[in-house]
Amino acid sequence: xxxxxxxxxxxxLDGTRFELRRNGRxxxxxxxxxxxLILLAEKEGCVATRQEIIERLWGKDVFVDTEHGINTAVxxxxxxxxxxxxxxxxxxxxxxxxxxxxxxxGNTNANxxxxxxxxxxxxxxxxxxxxxxxxxxxxxxxxxxGLELQKWLWAAVALLVVAGATLLGLxxxxxxxxxxxxxxxxxxxxxAVLPLANLSGDPSQDYYADGLTDEFITAxxxxxxxxxxxxxxxxxxxxxxxxxxxxxEELGVDGILEGSVxxxxxxxxxNLQLIYAATDTxxxxxxxxxxLNNAQSLPEELSATIAREAKISSAPAQAQHHVNPExxxxxxxxxxxxxxxxxxxxxxxxxxxxxxxSDYAPAWAGLCTSILARAEPGRSPLGEAVDKAEAAARxxxxxxxxxxxxxxxxxxxxxxxxxxxxxADAESRRSLELDPNFSEAHHxxxxxxxAMNRPDEALQEQKRATEIDPFERPWALxxxxxxxxxxxxxxxxxxxxxxxxxxxxxxxxxxxQVYGFKGMEKESERELEEDARINFGEKxxxxxxxxxxxxxxxxxxxxQLNYLNTRSRKEHNVSHWQLAEAYAALEMKAETLQQLxxxxxxxxxxxxxxxxxxxxxxxxxxxxxxxxxxxxxxTPAY
Length: 638
Description:
This protein has 25 helices and 13 strands. The chain is of the alpha+beta class and 638 residues long. The protein starts with a strand and ends in a 6-residue tail after the last helix.
């Protein structure tokens, strides 16, 4: 059983109580990352191999994705220790082997002795660069022994360098091949497709490179044996120039697929290579020169090739349909614009693709999503827009029932447009059956399950969505915990996201809400102030601070309500749902119900979350509220 106290920097690790403290304050760290940190501290400078970590954290007979689990645990430890992977103060990655604890000089170990691990310096030691076997760098020694060992190690390094130089020229009876064996390549069960580099020299061709990246991801994601990081998370590394091993660690993957595309008037040239991230080893590479008429078959070919190279079973082959190159180009432009939030322009390109090829199913699915994204509650053609979106989704499914995006588009119609949870659920299950790595589909399915009052299942779906795409919605898992009334877990998730720097838009706002329901008023005000500072500026943040000093939390809530009412009168861009939330936070029942009824007559899509938002819980006994729940068709949660 691990025990003792390890002190390093301004941290203190208590192995008996499983606590990490910073300046005396307990830091939030889950059980598995804490176990990992204790293991590394116990090694006192030795490398903890990945196998040792697996056996310690999960046991020998493990049937989980341990590679992803280790990477996630290391990431959480580094967050807790406030260190960056590029500038490690305490946790050092030993490429191809594992990790070791390298506390700064002057720290003490569990026995009160000076820590024996080598401090991290700008000049790495032989172990960190892979020149000396990690097993040699193991355990504390006396000073004299340590000096002798260092001399022996450097002598060994010199001998290896001289021998290596000789053997590079002379491969005597295969000795060179045995000494300089290829680095090992393990199975690839998870992969990230980095954005293809656009080598055309024309920035306006970025849409084509991004579109092909998206299609490669989609084709690979149909393989149930492979966890594929979604588009949004991969796109963060577009032209980032970061080391592949670092990217793989941040995304928690075994393999990286990268490459480039050069599109001409009639042909496209694509270079691709697969890297095994743990040892930064080249696994496979290929170049493709295709006529634009035949380029559409590449994603399916690539999926089968990667499955073979990754030593996993390949996904069932998809039926190939001829696609007009001009229609395909219009579709890629539409996808590019949709992802950028320009739904009006994206709709035009999807319609253009359909005009060029009326049986192009993905374009019909894209048209559905653009129409739904543009539909606004309170506008007279809302019902007409939903009907048009449904017709487009139905056409996509008729043309290709195996298209996950078509069924996913129909989910949006039934969930937000028609409030038909049963049909939405059926289409959602079909979409995920076709593409189990479809993170957006898992995310939307969590909404359906919440609407059907199945919060535990909804939470699991959002966990899956976040695992596949941790960067798309940094607030989503925390909000799912919040909807499930698991406030402590919600706070922990949001705090981790805030520390990771993914808080620019919503994380602090949500964290403020959760603290409010926990009765932690000062913390709630502090987070709301930070959200205002990030999104609206220091002047707004100061106003919130003054309101709290004047009248505590109630004064802050009244300030928010007055702000929304003023905006609604001047700009008419505040929804009835937003006003209902503001009134509900102050438990003003009559006003809240009035705004919710107005939202119902607008067919506001936010009403899908009526029973999920804790702010409305005080209305549960009210007959008017219950009647509204019944009209919407939600499964009662009271």
